[in-house]
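Long-time lurker, first post. I've been practising inverse folding by hand and with some scripts of my own, and I keep getting stuck on stretches where the structure tokens seem ambiguous. Below is the full token string for one chain I'm working on. Before anyone asks, I'm not after the true native sequence, just a reasonable design that respects the backbone. If someone could post their per-position residues I'd love to compare against what I wrote down in my notebook.
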């Protein structure tokens, strides 16, 4: 049974023609990691430091980001991406979580893609937009855009959707089509929906990202995040540890002549195998 907490592509399941199809069982809930008392104390102090850095730098970048709303696409999102890249690079180094991007060679800058990423932690969210090689937007919850100041930044790089509204879900699908076909940007989706809290490399995928790729005839670039759950575990509150983060781009999956289900199966296996090998081809 799917919880109401689905965050990204799980939203799409509410559209009548985007029902979820399971590939594997969801798996057992991940057992909580054990940390020493010293680590628990440090991680909370470090989280407080990260919050200070994030808020203070947010106040610096918010005006330039708001100005980017006035710039026509795709130049507006390219401006936002450049600002976000500088902001998040500074933030990640400041909190001891620098990001290494692997596999940029798999991105062809003359094309745009549906981007599918695994989702283990809230730390995944600020990584895709700035550090994926090409300009992109992400499907995101409309409610988050209501947060003062942060909501403006959040909305800039997103296709917003209210998962409680059928009309909003349908509109979000059309908006994602427009991102790919009219704005010529990449469209990023977390096909697992919510964060993966199981002991499996992946949760089962929703159909939405793959229907979108088949419908728009766009190839898919799978992205695998490593170590984000070690830095910011999903089972912990106000907790952060310094870790080297990694984002790996896998070879693009050609959509030509394939159904959404075939694409989903192929991407799922490719990402599962890659995670199991620890990022070794």
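-- Answer (accepted) --
I ran through it position by position. Result:
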């Amino acid at each position: 049974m799917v919880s109401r907490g689905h965050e990204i592509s799980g939203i799409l399941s509410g559209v009548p023609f985007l029902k979820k199809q399971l590939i594997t069982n969801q798996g057992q809930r991940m057992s909580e990691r054990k940390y020493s008392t010293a680590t628990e104390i440090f991680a909370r102090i470090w989280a407080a430091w990260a919050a200070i850095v994030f808020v203070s730098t947010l106040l610096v970048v918010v005006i330039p980001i708001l100005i980017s709303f006035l710039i026509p696409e795709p130049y507006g999102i390219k401006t936002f991406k450049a600002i976000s890249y500088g902001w998040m690079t500074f933030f990640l180094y400041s909190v001891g979580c620098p990001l290494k991007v692997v596999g940029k060679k798999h991105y062809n800058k003359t094309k745009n893609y549906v981007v599918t990423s695994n989702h283990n932690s809230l730390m995944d969210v600020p990584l895709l937009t700035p550090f994926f090689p090409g300009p992109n937007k992400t499907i995101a919850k409309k409610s988050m855009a209501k947060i003062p100041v942060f909501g403006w930044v959040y909305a800039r790089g997103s296709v917003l959707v209210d998962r409680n509204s059928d009309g909003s879900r349908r509109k979000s699908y059309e908006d994602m089509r427009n991102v790919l076909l009219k704005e010529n940007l990449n469209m990023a989706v977390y096909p697992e929906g919510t964060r993966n809290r199981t002991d499996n490399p992946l949760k089962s995928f929703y159909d939405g990202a793959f229907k979108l790729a088949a419908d728009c005839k766009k190839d898919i670039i799978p992205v695998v995040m490593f170590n984000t759950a070690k830095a910011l575990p999903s089972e912990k509150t106000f907790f952060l540890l310094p870790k080297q983060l990694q984002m790996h781009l896998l070879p693009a999956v050609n959509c030509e002549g394939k159904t959404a289900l075939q694409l989903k199966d192929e991407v799922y296996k490719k990402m599962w195998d890659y995670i199991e090998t620890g990022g070794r081809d």
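A couple of notes from the structure itself: Helices lie at 37-68, 75-94, 125-131, 150-156, 166-181, 208-216, 228-231, 260-276. The longest strand covers residues 220-226. Happy to go over any region you disagree with.
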